[in-house]
Design brief:
91 residues; mainly beta; Purple Acid Phosphatase, chain A, domain 2; four-stranded mixed β-sheet; two-stranded antiparallel sheet; 1 helix; 6 strands; 13% helix; Calcineurin-like_PHP_lpxH
Length: 91
């Protein structure tokens, strides 16, 4: 059996307060595979890599180092045979 890896990508909106809740809501509503998705969202420029209620939440921070980020960061995701790896790159 091949497992499905589902990514949901959204910019993110609104104030930093409630950001995770809005991102999780978007991930759950857009992923219809029955598998917990991985969601990549931005907007706050704060780097995040955590699992909340089964959903892996990623925020690359800022690819340009824009405030409040202290340096440029991004994630690279690789998917192979139903498994994924996420690597943080920094400048």
């Amino acid at each position: 059996m091949i497992e499905v890896v589902t990514f949901v990508v959204t910019h993110g909106t609104g104030s930093p307060d409630g950001w995770r809740d809005r991102v999780l809501e978007t991930a759950r509503s857009e992923a219809d595979t029955g598998v917990d998705p991985i969601v990549a969202a931005g907007h706050t420029h704060g780097r995040v890599d955590e699992t909340v209620a089964g959903v892996r939440v990623l925020n690359p921070g800022s690819e340009t180092g824009a405030s409040p980020a202290e340096r440029a960061t991004m994630y690279v995701a690789t998917v192979e045979d139903g498994e994924y790896e996420v690597v943080l790159l920094t400048a």
